[in-house]
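Question: I have long wanted to understand how a fold can be written as tokens. Here is the record:
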Amino acid sequence: MKIDELTMRFNEPSTYLHNLYHLIDRHPLTLNPDSYVIDAIILMNQQQSQNVPLHHFNSSDACSNINLQETSYVLVIESGHLLGIFTERELVKLAASTIDFADIKITEVMQQPAITMKISDIQDIFTVLSLLHQYQIRHLPILNDSGQLVGIVTMTSLLQGLNQLQTFCSLQAFTQESCNPIEWCNRDFSRQHQQGKVIFYSNMAEDITNLKQAEESLRRSEARLNLALESANMGIWDWDILTDETVWSANMWSLYGLPNTTLTPNFQGFLKLIHPQDREAVRQSVTNMIKQGGQFAVEYRTVWPDGSIHWLCDKGHVYHNDAGQAIRMIGTTRDITDRKQSELALRESEEFYRSVVTAMSEGIVLQQADGQIITCNASAERILGLSREQIIDRTSDDGRWRTIREDGSPFPSEEYPSMITLRTGKPCSNVNLGIYKPDGQLTWISINSQPLYRENETVPYAVVTSFADISEQQAALRDRQVAEQKIREQAALLEIATDAIFVRDLHGEILFWNQGAERLYGWSKQEAIGRNAQELLYAEISTHQNKQACKVVTEVGVWQGELQKLTKHGKEVIVESRWTLMRDADGEAKSILIVDTDITHKKQLEEQFFRAQRLESLGTLASGIAHDLNNILTPILAAAQLLKVKLPNEQMRSATLGGTPSPKVERASSQYLLEILENNAKRGACLVKQVLSFARGFKGERITVQLKHLITDIILIGKQTFPKSIEFTASLPEDLWAVAGDVTQLHQVLMNLVVNARDAMPDGGIINITAENIAIDETYASMMLEANVGNYIQITVTDTGVGMASEILDKIFDPFFTTKDVGVGTGLGLSTVLGIIKSHGGFVTVSSKVGQGSKFTLFLPAIQAIPNVPTKEIEIPIGKGELILIVDDEAPICEIAKMILKGHNYNALTASNGIEAIALYAQNKHRISAVVMDMMMPEMDGVTAIRTLKKMNSQVRIIASSGINVAETLSQAAVVGVQQVLPKPFTAKELLNCLHHVLRVEN
């Protein structure tokens, strides 16, 4: 509404427009929050029947006798406070949405919060008009300062108030412009009091288009209301109880199948429209409601003129006068035929499914979202051994349920299928558990669970659980499992056996093949069954044996013997084979059961045992001759050293006596020959020690070893002894670290490797030896089991020979394994290499490919070597005329030792055995200063002789000499109280130093 106002004041004080308080409807249409939309419609319809005349102060025909019926709102209040407003606008929206609003509460569709105004904020009509125009509303609830409802001002009442203003000139013009819709205008020019005196002058141009639209809207209000009722398939009735007159809305007749021209029936006429079976119940319900008052609701059937039956629902209110007499009943009638038919169909469906569920042998249980059981069928009672009353209201976690798993362990309630379904929303199926009935009987059930959802919800509101009694099936299953277990146990006896067990028919076709056969021969069951055993397993060398075995087993029924067979990979195995002829029910031969025991390893062990016996014999032989060898080498070594000393003295003596001294060249040549003699004697002694080490496993003496010198020596030997077609190359750094080791053993390791490399290159090739310093860190050590963090020397021996296959590489370090012909190799070379390197704290790796040569890599822990500083040779100690008794069964050793002693200011006595030594010592007891005693002698050994000498003189100084086992000699010497041990062969210096130590240091 657009308002332009210009007010000119005259000689009277300014007077405001009509008092707005008289326009507030202090008895508005109200409902409580629990009311329904249908209650609002009834109330609005009731108000519609009351005409509200608008009286004007002038007599203009345009404004007189306008009846506005205010039925367009209902206020929702609680304890005097406004909650919201329901208007025709909401009603039309509901009707357009085709929603059945019979059971919709008013609070679900009302406007909230409503636009309101406090009564203290009201100035005049135009203040209210501005607020209505601002929010485009037609109803303005008025509140007091406490927020409680006072009343309501509507557009209709405001327009009524404006028209009550008396004006001396009023012009309403109906104008229409070519481009604008129809507009209504009203202009007022002055205001008079009752005596006709002008109190102010006003020029106001008011657009009253909205007023005219409101009038038209109110005139169409009834039509809209009827449209809404028709959309809801509903009618409204008003029964005057005192006069028995009834007023129906336009669509009431259609609810009873009657034409609109039919007279509105009174109460008795209404009862005749009701189905005879429901008539008395409706009469009684109405009678009771008139007596008791309050709300009225009843459902009944009506018979249309065409004979069809329809369901109707009446709801209404009873109104009383001040005397408490019931005078009026107003309500609605709604067609509920569709609902009743749906309910009937639902009941029939429920009854059908209830019958199905009742007849089912499976137990059915319905549980709420909290797991509480709300219903069950008879089968559930029977299976669980509980009554319906005992089952209902139980929850899944009820402690009275006693359930177990199939393995006998408790079944947790949170793992029940129903609880999993409620928790996850997913169905469960075929979950087996055992449940104890109240009498203690265990029943096995198989459970399925299915979630139930409401529309547009993702969380199940309930779960249906079905379960079947599978106790008999479980018992049968257990019996079957026991039988199957027996069969499996019997089959397992075949499968877990290390023996290969298979069955072949008389033509050789394999019918059965166990896991032992798979492991032994490498053929899977699928590959072997159906194949011919002769083609699959037998080598050419055992074909005759196979035929002979077949002949014997068919004639005798059994056969046993050794056979050579082939695996899938072509490896030959030796088996102890036992054949049994299988016969059918008629006694006819049908197949052969064969049990093969792999004795390949046994045969290898036997061969190794025989080889070990031979080696043991060799070790015994080596130990036996070691003494003799050392006895032979001792005088050679001592004589060579003695000659080196005596030769210059003889030449000098010859020159003194006037003889002609030998030329210098001859002296140098003699010294060189003696040095060769001495070195080879020492080498021979080392070889004897090596033989003893191999035979008895001596650890050997560990010293600081410069490997580059050892490698150079090996290369020199190889170049001198290997065929000329074999070339040596080397890469040795000058700063190569040293190791702590036994020179002889390390020499043997390198020699074994280059000899193997030579044998792998029959047509010649290159042997490359490299050495380098490396530092092994934690990463490398974690990948190599034998390695430790620290410094190592890495020695690599590479050849360009024939190489080795992967299956050979796995066995090269096994004792007695060799690829050489019998008699050519012992199979101990590489096992000796590995043993020596491991004893030195190192490890070995090897790589090889057929046709591409081999590479052996040795890793030895490095030490910080002490640099070799040239030292002045220590002088050989000289004696003081002491008498020394030398006891040895080898005369050359006695003689050479005697010569050494006399040449260094000692006196000597010799004895060839222990008895002679005891006799000489008894004669010269007080003169003999020390005894050099051989530990192995005929007639009386050294230990017995020493014990005898100790009895004669407990202070006698004895040096034990041995050519066999130094460690054993030391052990024996410690027992009998020997001061020093002199290993054979010994040098003059070693003998003299030993005597010096016994006579001087220990003294």
User: Anything to note?
Assistant: The first strand starts at residue 3 and ends at 9. The first helix runs from residue 37 to 48.
